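Title: Comparing notes on inverse folding

I've been comparing how different people in this forum approach sequence design from structure. To keep things fair, I'm posting one structure and asking everyone to reply with a full sequence. Here's the target:
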């Protein structure tokens, strides 16, 4: 076998090894640069309604909400069986004030998301061996590997303890 054939085969094997976790890597990167429309970002307008009396229409108010505009928070509350009229201007149910006060009795940090993102980035940098990569890889898998749950091990432990468990796909079914 020629040396060029051997180099070509090693290169092809190396490239094929890079494609194994493509589906899992996409789960962490929600933005897409594929140039195609994101089907979940397209929201249809609510249907137009013809009023009973066209002469009794209110005057247009600049900056006011449109009756056909999307209201995703109120729509979600209504779809889950709640009453969207009970939401205050921040989107919090009016009757949940006592619950929110109790949960935040020791204080709450308005910038907790930014703080957690910075701490997560620092943790991943500490767990990363090199700052440069030859082949792009998902740093979440490497940083949090020690915290993974062995799902089939837990499933087997519950079954050995006599707990009724639902069926699960066999190991390796999606590889």
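Reply #1:
Here's my take.
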């Amino acid at each position: 076998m020629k040396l060029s054939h051997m180099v070509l085969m090693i290169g092809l094997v190396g490239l094929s090894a890079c494609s194994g976790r493509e589906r899992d890597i996409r789960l962490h990167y929600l933005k897409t640069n594929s140039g195609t429309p994101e089907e979940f970002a397209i929201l249809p307008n609510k249907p137009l309604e013809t009023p009973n009396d066209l002469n009794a229409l209110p005057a247009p108010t600049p900056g006011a909400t449109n009756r056909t505009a999307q209201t995703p928070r109120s729509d979600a509350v209504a779809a889950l069986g709640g009453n969207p009229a009970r939401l205050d201007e921040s989107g919090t149910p009016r009757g949940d004030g006592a619950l929110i006060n109790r949960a935040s009795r020791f204080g709450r940090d308005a910038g907790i998301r930014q703080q957690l993102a910075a701490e997560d980035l620092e943790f991943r940098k500490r767990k990363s061996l090199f700052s440069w990569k030859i082949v792009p890889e998902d740093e979440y898998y490497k940083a949090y590997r020690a915290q993974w749950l062995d799902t089939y091990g837990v499933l087997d432990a519950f079954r050995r303890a006599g707990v009724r468990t639902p069926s699960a796909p066999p190991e390796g079914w999606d590889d």
